[in-house]
Amino acid sequence: MRVASGGVMSSWKRLEVRPRAGLQWLLAAAVVVVLPLSGADGKADPKAEEKKKEASKADYVGSETCQTCHEDLFKAFQKNPHYLVESGKTKKAWAGKTCEACHGPGSKHAESADPKDIVNPSKAAASRVDQNCLACHANQQTHAGRIQSGHAHNQVSCAACHSVHKEQGRPAAWKPAQINGQCGACHPSVLAQFQRPYAHKLPQGAMSCVDCHNPHGSFLPRMVAVHSGNEPSCIQCHGNKRGPFVYDHPPMQLEGCGACHEPHGSANPKMLTRAEVRTLCLECHSNKPTAAAAPGQGNLGGIPPAIHDLRSPRYRNCTTCHQKIHGSYVNRGFLR
Amino acid sequence: MRFLISLLLFLPLAAQEQTTKAPEGAAAEKKGAESEPAAKADAEKWLSGSVDLGYRWVQMNGGNFDVYRSIVNLGEGPKVLGADFTITDPQKRSFDQLRFSMHQWGGEPYSTMRGSVAKERLYRFSADYRSLAYFNNIPTFANPLLARGVTFSQNGYDSRRRFAEFELELFPSRKIVPYFAYSRDWGKGQGVLPYVTTANEYAVPVRLNDRTHDYRGGVRIELDHYHVTLEEGGTQFLDTQEAAYVAQNLGNLQTPLLGQVQSLTKLSQVYDVTGSSTYTKVVATAAPFRWLNAFGQFLYSKPDSKVTYRDSAAGAFFQINALRLLSGQQDLVYSFAKQPHPSGMAGLELRPFRRVRIVESIMTDRLHNATSALLTEFLLLPASTTPDEVRSFTPDRLVYNYNRQELNAFVDVTSKLTLRGGFRYVWGDAQFRAAEFNPFRREDYGELNQKVGIAGVNFRWNQKFSFNGEFEGASSDKTYFRTSLQDYRRMRLRGRYQVKPSLLISATMALLDNQNPSPGLNFDFRQRSDSVSVQWTPQGAKRFSLLGDYTRSTLRSDLLYLNPAFLGTERSFYHENAHLATGLMEASLFKTGSRMTKVSAGGSLFVSSFSRATNYYQPFGRLTMPVNARLEWFGEWRWFGYSETSYAFESFRTNHFILGFRFTI
Predict the structure, then answer these.
(1) What's the rounded Cα separation, in Å, for the pair B655 and B638?
(2) Which residues of B touch A309 (CB under 8 A)?
(3) Are B23 and B40 in contact (CB under 8 A)?
(4) Which of A148, A167, A190, A287 to substitute to test the interface with B, most B CBs within 10 Å?
(5) Angle at A148 between CA A145 and CA A152, to 5 degrees
(6) In whole angstroms, what is the distance from residue B612 CA to residue B621 CA?
(7) pLDDT tens per residue, range B534-584
(8) What is the pTM (predicted TM-score) of this model?
(9) Beta carbons within 8 Å of A11's beta carbon, 6+ residues apart
(10) CA B301 to centroid of chain Cα atoms
(11) Interface predicted TM-score (ipTM) of this complex, two decimals
């Protein structure tokens, strides 16, 4: 059976094909000077290779054939958004062959009923699963930067979070608690931090991890999602901290909210990273003013000698006076 | 809003009426009596969901109610604890599926509502609304009067933040997807903030009101090997903080200066901040060859702010730089800021060999905030009818450039083992005005230069066992701040083992160790957390299930700083050892009708020691008893116990009882 036309490709098959020598070598050489890994291209598992070659010789049999044995799975799949593929109304034309769009041609498996005769993405390398999914989903709004995301780097495939078969396939429709549970399965220590007294309201179900992070990747560090163009997602709910301020507090721009706050939870009020306000401030505002910058010693935040006598409680609580500490529209000292 | 929610709750009922009407048509006449069971079956298919209603009793067993509100804030009364509906139209007329859910309504501090409706290949619409209470009155936070026994915070808030977002995607063709979205974020409430003069601060009540509207629209163009997303958006912002105060206020400093105690007797203060922004987003992905994937994005925003600020204060003030007394002060400020902010990122994934992938990306983020402010200040002297007028014009700027290049190589050594090695180079610079009164410099200039080595391993023996590890080691010769990461090592290890189908064990370890041995700084930072989780679900959790995790975390930060008055060296030492645990046990007791009566128990604990030693316990127990196939009763008890070793007056202990029912459609 012929593969459906119109640019449709089976990623599984596609990945097996060795690239032509040529431009890719030039690009590879430009990216890395030495890549002593050509040995890795050897046949590490000849039996598996043989199996895959045999599987690739199989033909497409259609979803109805799959349904014969996998009826429960197929029933659930009918309520999954992927079922749309079966109708042939999607960009990639796989009408009547939805199962094989991901699992590859199934004629051999249909004959033998042997699991080894069909591609099983749950057992495949994460990068191959991603290639398969991204063949159709590369242009989702949230997917920009997927290649460079921490999840991609750590071999967390799309299927690790998304269910391809089950009824509720679209995570956006999940409840926040479900999303948090999903993320917490791999990040339990992060989820545990929200049990601290001062934390964003995740355990209460008011928020979910994806309100702040984009699990598909972001150009910001730690996969922090972006909002309003290129602003960090913090301002999505804290719009009054966005500015632009007439007098910026530079760490807000240079290091972000995490310079002073622990957004996942803290034992300190206002999710601060220190128990006392003064230590948080003075740890940075602690350079002796000099005429020239002192390279390599964190030369920003210098202070001249001040009247602040730290023996007085008034001066131990910096934000009492410097109340507009995120930035001020009126006063350089953040007093108003 | 409550009316709207009530209407939404009745939505499924309205839908039910439609189905009963449908068999009344021609088809019903033909089928006669047989149509009724068929309609019922249809109804079961297209409508599903549940609603949880209950009443909560709150019993304070002592402690500080303000701290309780700052941390927990759950109140008493009738509540809509949750509602969740899915309507599927079998005939797919105007929609295929409509989903709606809402949680924690009825005077609750954290209320959410979301819905989505979609029709295959035509449209998808989603809406999200949240209303979060923000109460914060912690006696020990930035409170200079605490030593005098005043436990009212001078940085307190009692406000509510609301957020709404609506998004519509259209599918006019297979390759073009236009979308439109609108979101609104707004905060309103009251608080307490100090009015600051040169020699004293007076805590006064303030009214807070800010809102941001965000509009965006774009189109996704999906070709076979190339994809482009073009988006254009804009924001509008308004912030009007106000204070109006008439009373005698002695402020934080009650020591007489020049023989006079300072006081504020009258204050009027108004911020009028308006802002706007337009932004552009271009994202492109491409798979031009079988061995190459590439992506790039360009983001540009240009927010600006225009500000009018007025204050007028009367009382007895001391002007510290002129060493004189004032009877009043008026300020008028006009200011503006413009902040062009372009960002870009480009990357590619290259597969020169079947088992090798090379991923490279380069990113840049540039920001230039240009501002200026015109201040006119009138200082009223006690013995004069003519005020002193001070005018100043202050231009300011912040320039910030950040760049990052990262290269990673992945090798699938076998189908079960993937190794990763890479390198990240981060560099940038920042420039802004130096601190006020700096005798040496008008501008501060900082540079960033960091080199990071990256390594990783991913091992998946089979579907039961997997292991993932990643390591970063960095060396920096230039950082922006004293507390920035300089020479650091970061490590994360994760393991997961499915012992048997009913038992899953996973463990993680995360470590961050940073050193900056510069003289006068000697920064030593170490953070580590170790977690272990267990999921035990014998017999598919039919009778019993147990989920639990335990995390042990330590954080130690030690560095030197200067005392600003004398520039003498002091030490800042922050240390926290914490135990965090959460657990959930659920057991089925006996059968009531066709369903099981269940009991569940669990909760969480947080116990920390050293710098801010805190205990926070949240155990709970719940009994669920079905009445019939659609209705079940539940009773729930929760305990919130919070205490701090150093500040006993900030503790609280609270019992919560909820009695309610769940109706399943």
Answers:
(1) 6
(2) 565
(3) no
(4) A148
(5) 105
(6) 29
(7) 999 998 888 999 999 999 999 999 999 988 888 888 999 999 999 999 999
(8) 0.88
(9) A128, A131, A132, A135
(10) 22
(11) 0.90
- How many whole angstroms from its chain centre is CA B387? 47
Backbone angles phi, psi at B241, to 5 degrees: -85, 140
- Which residue blocks in A113-258 are alpha helix, DSSP H? 126-137, 150-153, 176-184, 188-193, 234-237, 250-254
Residues B280, B218: Cα–Cα separation, whole Å: 10
pLDDT tens figures, B215-272: 999 999 988 888 899 999 999 999 999 999 999 999 998 888 888 899 999 999 999 9
End-to-end Cα, chain A, rounded Å: 74
Residues 338-357 of B with CB under 8 A from A: 338-339, 341-343, 345, 347-357
Residue B184 at interface with chain A, using a CB cutoff of 8 Å: no
Q: Are B94 and B119 in contact (CB under 8 A)?
A: yes
Q: Taking CB atoms and an 8 Å cutoff, what residues of chain B touch A115? A: none
Minimum mean pLDDT among A103-117, A135-149, B361-375, B476-490: which range? A135-149
Dist CA B527 CA B515 (whole Å): 12
Range B228-241 burial, b when 16+ CB lie within 10 A, else e:
bbebebbbebbbeb
Q: What is the mean pLDDT of residues B97-117?
A: 92
pLDDT at position B222 is 86
User: How much is the pLDDT for A53?
Assistant: 55
CB contacts of A198 in chain B (<8 Å) are 71
- The whole-angstrom separation of Cα B339 and Cα B370 is 6
Distance in angstroms (rounded) separating the CA atoms of residues A25 and A17: 16
Dihedral of alpha carbons B14, B15, B21, B26, sign: positive
A78 near B CB under 8 A? no
- Domain parsing of chain A, residue ranges: 1-18+48-169, 243-328
